[in-house]
Amino acid sequence: MRITPMILARQAVHFINRNAQVINASLERLGTGRRINRSHEDPPGTVLSMRLQSDILATVGDYRRLEQVMPYIQAADTSLQQSISVLQRARELILRAGSDTVTTDQRLAIANEMRGLRDELVQIANTQVGDRFIFSGAAILTKPFTLDSDGNATYQGDSDSLTAKLSSGEEVAITLDGRKIFQGNEDVFAVFKDALEALANDNAWEIREQILPRLDRALDQIVQASAIYGAQANRIERTISNLQAQEVGLRMALSPVFDADISEEVMTYQLKQTTMQATLFAVSRIVPMSLVDFMV
Amino acid sequence: MSLSVALQASLQSLLVHQTSLAVVAQNIANAQNPDYSRQVVRLKASIPIPAPTLTGGVSWGQLGTGVTVAEISRQYDALLMSALRASASKLAHQGTLLEGLERLNAFLGEPSESSLNALLVEFFEGWRDLASNPENIGNRAIVLERAKLVISRFQNLRSQLEHEKVLVRLKFENEVEQINLWLEHVARLNEQIVAAKTAGLQPNDLMDERDAVLRSIAERLSIQVFEQPNGSVIVTASGHELVSGAQFRLVKVVVDGNGVPRAILSDTNETLPLGEGIFASLREFAQQVIQLVRNQLQLLLDSLAQAINSLHQTGYGLDGSTGIPFFVQANGEWQVNPEILNDPRKLAASATGSVGNGEIAASIAKLAEEPLASLGGQSFLGAYRSLIGTVAAKTQGVKNAYSAFSEVHRALQNRRDMVSGVSIDEELVDLMRFQQAYIAAAKVIQVVDNIVNDLLSRL
């Protein structure tokens, strides 16, 4: 086998080139901190990391959307608690007014307070967070309850509700159908209207036998709604912390695919650098060697 | 008589070794010429005297009369050269394909935070945010902005693909022009080689030049080379004769409607089978890669626009408008409906007409990972990912093939150099050998001269 200088030169260039390519790839991974810098370096890894990246973005988005929902849930919760207090106070008043010992003047005073409570309740039912009325269903920009001069409340909202949509397909209500809460089986405002009429008519029997049970049912109705939304608030808090864990999990799954293993890269880099130095040393010594050097 | 024979033999030796030294000098001069084949002087003893006869004469045998050059032979292995040409075709094929695919991957730009995948994910996230804030004009503006970005990225990719097609066509045309010059060159060299051979000369350097040109042709096109007894070669591409003796045929380029080039023979208009090499590679890139990616991207954009439109048209805008498509086509190009751009309230996020209903926006957001019939049951993002995966896998395959073929090619080149390459050390040893032989022949002449002088002075 004849080995010519051309063969030596070709081999030298080839080995230098091959080492340089590995060093270059390693340098690129170190420089960008990424294991995959071009899709063809790892096609399945590329597809997987694209999928994981979109899952991470969706998870972060869900987290953000749920955090935006929180103020609404809290406002709804507070409003329902306030409604319960109002109705409890109304119940005390009605209980007192139902007694035959109460005078007409006292009933008038009670009626005044009842009117105040009713207005407060209307105000609560018209609670706004930002621009949104939280008890008007999906008609979020429409004030849900208006009271006419006779004390009749009309619901202007709808039976839908604005919901936050999560990437999992789960939905969380932001606004609620106010009619179901305040004008469900028992129309709270009608109870107030009838109570005020009964108070004005001084009809203790009606107050005792009819208004009071209706008020109790109205109270039950709101307590139930409050329990449901309280449970939802808990669920959202749990979901938020799940999402945080999920994001960490996704990032941990992405990391070995997408991120460069720095310590491994440094080792590869050093190893290849040594190989490169050895190659260059050998090339510099062997290639120039010739019989010419020994001829005089 | 014998003294003059010795003088004659020595003179021949001087001349022959001068020739040998000249060949060594030529070899050393071309040591770094990759196409050069080493030349070797083959010696043979010249015709002895006297010719043997039946009737007496000298009985001890024939007397040598010196040395002559039998031929200056070219160290060459025809089989190896043909293997090198085939390997050059393969290597150039994969190399050109790899170059194109790497450019394609670079402008697809996956995986990265600014790629189309990222834009699409953000686009769908925008819809999901809108679903939770359907009355918010800001969220509407974000969806519209992102939609414009997605559309413009699709258009950008398509125009880059069109540009690639133009590049492929131009390169193909350049290469064909080049190969026509080379085919002519081979025909000319055939002519010169035949002339030299007829005159009894050994046209070694012309044959080296012809091999170099043939290898350049082989990089473009798979060729078969048949050497003829008179020294000329016939070059064929899958049975179509390109060069025969001093005759050659020109090649022309034809580009079809999709920008896919092919080569035809200019005299018969037959399509030239390309085999492997730069031509076939450019054609494959245009036909299989660019066309596939372009069609797939178009299919993705069409399905996206149609799927979004069919949902959007059933929804209601904030102003109660309905039946409006989200994307419209103008001059065959998808764009965000200008009606909605002018009035974002017309964006139909609501399924019922209620301000706070975001069901349509939510359904559109779900398109991202929902199987679509128009994409063969793949989801939109899934189909895009599998397109990227396909291109990446193809590139990886070509890259692996390229490095395997370059190993083979390097090994073949080394083998060729083992046969045909010049080793300077070997030439230097020869140089010393021939120098010694020259000195020795001169010494013989000196000795003969001394003997003759001696003889003359004593008479």
Please explain how this structure is put together.
The complex is a heterodimer of chains A (296) and B (459). In chain A, 69% of the residues lie in helices and 5% in strands. Chain A contains seven helices and six strands. By secondary structure, chain A is mainly alpha-helical. In chain A, strand 5 (163-165) and strand 6 form a beta hairpin. Chain B is an alpha+beta fold and 459 residues long. The two termini of chain B are 18 Å apart. Chains A and B meet through helix 1, helix 2 and strand 5 of A and helix 2, helix 3, helix 8, helix 9 and helix 10 of B.
In helices, the fraction of residues of chain B equals: 55-70%
Radius of gyration of chain A: 38 Å
| Form type of chain A | rod-shaped
Which of globular, elongated, flat, extended, rod-shaped describes the shape of chain B? rod-shaped
Major sheet attributes of chain B: 4 strands, antiparallel
Largest sheet geometry of chain A: 2 strands, antiparallel
Distance between the termini of chain A: 28 Å
Helix content of chain A: 55-70%
Write a brief structural summary.
Chain A has 296 residues and is mainly α. Chain A contains seven helices and six strands. In chain A, helix 3 (104-125) runs antiparallel to helix 5.
Q: What key attributes describe this structure?
A:
heterodimer, A: 296 residues, mainly alpha, two-stranded antiparallel sheet, 69% helix, B: 459 residues, alpha+beta, four-stranded antiparallel sheet, two-stranded antiparallel ribbon, 10 helices, rod-shaped
SSE order and pairing:
The complex is a heterodimer of chains A (296) and B (459).
Chain A: H1 5-32, H2 43-97, H3 104-125, E1 128-129, E2 132-133, E3 145-147, E4 153-155, E5 163-165, E6 171-173, H4 178-182, H5 188-200, H6 204-258, H7 262-286
Antiparallel strand pairs in A: 1-2, 3-4, 5-6
Helix pairs in contact in A: 1-7, 2-3, 2-6, 3-5, 5-6
Chain B: H1 2-29, E1 39-45, E2 67-74, H2 78-108, H3 116-132, H4 137-198, H5 204-220, E3 224-227, E4 233-237, E5 240-244, E6 247-248, E7 251-255, E8 261-265, H6 278-312, E9 327-330, E10 333-336, H7 338-342, H8 359-366, H9 380-420, H10 424-458
Antiparallel strand pairs in B: 1-2, 3-4, 4-5, 5-6, 7-8, 9-10
Helix pairs in contact in B: 1-10, 2-4, 2-5, 2-6, 2-9, 3-4, 3-8, 4-5, 4-6, 6-8, 6-9
